[in-house]
């Protein structure tokens, strides 16, 4: 049986150099570039010697994951079910906007420990963090399926701030000039509101965009919907966003999943406006995507419009996320049904 080794997808050129015991630096760069350019077998790496191709082919794996299923929604959304080598699975989604820009929505954990009441992923439990290689591979599997991608958002399964080290490495690999050379401006990390993570991101980078899943600015309601609020109260969250604004000069997106009759009242609009006052933010509304086992409803168009207008009247910059990918269970908050073998686990956040 082949011995388990780290897949090459999660290694930087200098790591490939030592891992493959290469003598020449440029060889490591060549292999790194081949992977970014879509080579999925050593035979395809035509500038390596036959001997090297055969030797690496016998002992090394380029990827550790495989695409178990590809689902395509008529609206252009594509969802990949990705099988990990331990029997777990995660999902990755391609979103295409009106201008045709392609965004990869990647997962960073198997399941999620945060337990948000309205989210499918939050209800399947948590198994483990993904490695950088497993995250990088989601991006490359999508590019193999749909062509070159423009953006990447960490808005799939899992809480990015609980796996920041792997995300940092993923970004280093995807942005590396000798590889895929993705621009950092095209990367967004979305958090449920882990204050320490937001501050660390501001202090240490990576220098990417930040989205915070606010959902509501009403503390009592947010505690019920998002247990993260207990250890990360609204005042601290607001201060962390202000710190991020100040430190990075970047505007932050406040995401709000809207549940009919739950967080759409006029008073809630006012509370979001109060929370946002003095912050450099914009608000993105996401009408709740149905999860059959959860006791929420998608708001009517009129209800969504009313909330949108109320926020605008308070002077906020507001956008509405178009509903996409529902037919394939690929919309925000719907990921995870296919993910196997997740186990509940206590987590300290
Ligand atoms: N865990 C991170 C990123 C993934 S969730 C976070 O929570 O920010 C991506 C977004 O989908 C979050 O803004 C979340 O609030 C939202 N969301 C979760 N379930 C949803 C649902 N059923 N319908 C619409 N949005 C949902
Ligand atoms: Fe986890 Fe985000 Fe879902 Fe909350 S909304 S359970 S943080 S994936």
Relative strand content: 15-25%
**Total E-strand runs:** 12
Bound molecules: S-adenosyl-L-homocysteine, iron/sulfur cluster
Under CATH at level 1, the class of the largest domain stands as Alpha Beta
Instruction: Give the helices and strands as they follow along the chain.
Output: HHHEEEEEHEHEHEHEHHEHEHE
Task: Write structural notes for this entry.
This protein is α/β, with parallel strands linked by helices. It has two domains: 8-59, no CATH class; 66-328, Aldolase class I (TIM Barrel, Alpha-Beta Barrel), CATH 3.20.20.70. It has helices at residues 13-19, 25-36, 50-59, 120-123, 132-146, 164-175, 195-204, 219-225, 234-248, 266-276, 301-313, and strands at residues 66-72, 78-83, 89-96, 102-105, 109-111, 126-129, 151-154, 187-191, 209-213, 252-258, 281-287, 318-320. The chain is elongated, with a radius of gyration of 21 Å. The structure holds S-adenosyl-L-homocysteine (SAH) and iron/sulfur cluster. Residues 118-119, 155, 159, 190-192, 213, 215, 255, 257, 286, 288-289, 291, 332-333 line the site of S-adenosyl-L-homocysteine.
């Amino acid at each position: 049986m082949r011995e388990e080794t780290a897949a090459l997808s999660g290694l930087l050129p200098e790591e490939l150099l030592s891992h493959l015991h290469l003598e020449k630096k440029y060889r490591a760069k060549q292999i790194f570039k081949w992977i970014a350019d879509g080579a999925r077998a050593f035979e395809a790496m035509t500038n390596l010697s036959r001997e090297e191709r055969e030797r690496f082919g016998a002992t090394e794996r380029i990827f550790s994951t495989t695409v178990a299923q590809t689902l395509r929604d008529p609206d252009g959304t594509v969802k990949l079910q990705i099988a990990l080598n331990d029997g777990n699975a995660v999902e990755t989604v391609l979103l295409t906007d009106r201008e045709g820009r392609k965004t990869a929505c990647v997962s960073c954990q198997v399941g999620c420990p945060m337990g948000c009441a309205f989210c499918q992923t939050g209800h399947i439990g948590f198994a483990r963090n993904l490695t950088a290689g497993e995250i990088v591979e989601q991006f490359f599997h999508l590019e193999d399926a749909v062509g070159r991608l423009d953006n990447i958002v960490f808005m799939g399964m899992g809480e990015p701030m609980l796996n920041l080290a792997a995300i940092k490495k993923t970004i280093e690999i995807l942005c590396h000039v000798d590889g895929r050379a993705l621009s950092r401006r095209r990367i967004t990390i979305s958090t449920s509101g882990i204050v320490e993570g937001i501050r660390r991101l501001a202090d240490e980078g990576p220098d990417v965009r930040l989205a915070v899943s606010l959902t509501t600015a009403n503390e009592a309601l947010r505690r019920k919907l998002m247990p993260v609020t207990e250890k990360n109260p609204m005042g601290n969250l607001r201060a962390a966003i202000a710190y991020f604004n100040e430190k990075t000069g970047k505007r932050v997106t406040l995401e709000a999943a809207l549940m009919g009759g739950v967080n759409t009242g006029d008073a809630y609009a006012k509370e979001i406006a109060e929370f946002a006052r003095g912050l450099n933010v914009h608000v993105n509304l996401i009408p709740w995507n149905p999860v059959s086992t959860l006791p929420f409803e998608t708001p009517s168009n009129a209800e969504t419009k009313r909330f949108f207008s109320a926020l605008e009247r308070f002077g906020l910059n507001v956008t509405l996320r178009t509903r996409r990918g529902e037919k394939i269970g690929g919309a925000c908050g719907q990921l995870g049904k296919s993910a196997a073998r997740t186990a509940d686990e206590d987590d300290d956040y």
